Amino acid sequence: MPKTKVLMVANWSGSGGTEMYLLGLYKHIDHSRFDVQFLINYYTDDGKPAVQELRKLGATIHKITFSLSHPKSWPNFGKVRQLLKREHYDIVHIHSHYCEPIELMARHYGAKVVVHTHMSGWTGRNSLYTNIKRFGYAAPARFIENRMDARLACSKRAGEFRFRRPNFQLAYNGVEVQAFRYQAAMRHKFRKQLGLADSTTAVLHVGRFAAVKNHPMVVRVFAAYHQIHPDSHLILVGSGPLEAEVRREIAQHNLQAATTIITDMYNVADFYNAADILLLPSIAEGLGIVLVEAQLNGLPCLASDTTPKSVFYNSNTEQLPLSASPNTWSKHLVELAKIGRITPSLQLLQDYDAAHTAEQLEDFYDNLLKSPTK
Fold first, then answer.
1. Staple 234 to which of 38, 216, 222, 295, CB 3.0 to 4.6 Å?
2. Which whole-number Å values give the CA distances from 256 to 106, 204, 217, 275, 291, in the listed order?
3. In what side-by-side order are the strands of the sheet with 91-94?
4. pLDDT value at position 155?
């Protein structure tokens, strides 16, 4: 029996939630039944650890620059068309925005098309120009995507943002749950590397340096907390275009000595072990996979109410509105830090286990191929 041939289409900006989900999926999917290949966008850097690991696992990776939002890349949609024509995929699974030409071409060459959203709001800075551009793109894009064969969303909020109607299914972003289990020995090792005393409260934020992650709020909240608890330290794990701005914000609050920035996000589990609390005041989160990982570690977590409620499992997690003051956020940090780590929810362990989510996707693909093409 021939394998089902699947093309995953995604941006690849490093070791973010979507990238790690796809890596975990590739590790666990049944390769005797599915030939999964990747078409990854211009963000790709072959030096990224996740890309290197995919290659080591034997993945076929097609690297083509493409995006409707970057006119210089438009001619490369011709290369994508050639790929689709040559490879005869059964399913093309889209994980990115600005891919409508690929969706239409994939349908033309006989593939079933799955549109999969991982975000619940626009990233980047707001301006009149960008908002007009987004509106001009969103309406026709939604018209096309709502006519594809299937729609998936990492959360209800992400699905409602992308599709504007309840015509999607939920698909959890599975992770390697065992990798995020709390390990006391690893905590001691990495706190020693960071120069943190046992008494020091380590406040952790994980996320790329981009406007949507709201680093200015992270720094202001920690500044308020640090005034109350001077024996505290902020750990920022991430990289991105706004790193210099974040460093300036830290300097403005005289927090250089109380802050560590780590740009390698690949072994982020090490820092969940080292931390005492996670702070996540994002402007928008499709799912908030960082929150999932932190809860698997048992960490207390304080996140904005822009994060889907469905991802809050453990009793030591809380949401606050972004309109609340940094002082209010800092007071909640104090109370959550008193609770400390707890044993992760059994439901969380089940819902986000990468092996389990891979099995669910296999069943989804099987049923999709049996259904009539729209």
1. 222
2. 50, 15, 16, 18, 26
3. 60-63, 34-40, 4-10, 91-94, 112-117, 150-153, 169-170
4. 87
Three-state secondary structure call for residue 279: strand
Chain centroid offset of residue 330 CA: 25
Quick: pLDDT tens for 182-202: 999 999 999 999 999 999 999
What are the backbone dihedrals phi and psi of residue 231, each rounded to the nearest 5 degrees, phi first? -85, 65
For residue 197, count CB atoms less than 10 angstroms from its CB and return exposed for 0-12, middle for 13-18, buried for 19 or more: exposed
The CATH code that applies to domain 4-174+353-370 is 3.40.50.2000
Quick one: which of 177, 173, 157 has its CA closest to 309?
A: 157
Fold entry, domain 179-350: Rossmann fold (3.40.50)
What pLDDT is attached to residue 42? 58
230 vs 254: CA distance, rounded Å: 12
What's phi and psi for 206, nearest 5 deg?
A: -120, 125
What is the 8-class DSSP label of residue 343? P
Please provide the distance, in angstroms rounded to a whole number, between the alpha carbons at the two ends of the chain. 25
- CATH 3.40.50.2000 domain range(s) in the chain: 4-174+353-370, 179-350
Cα–Cα distance measured from residue 349 to residue 340, given in angstroms and rounded to the nearest whole number: 19
Query: pTM of the full predicted structure?
Result: 0.86
| pLDDT, mean of each 10-residue run, the chain (374 residues) | 94 75 94 96 60 91 83 89 97 88 94 89 51 53 81 89 85 92 96 96 94 96 97 94 95 98 81 97 88 97 93 96 98 96 95 95 97 79
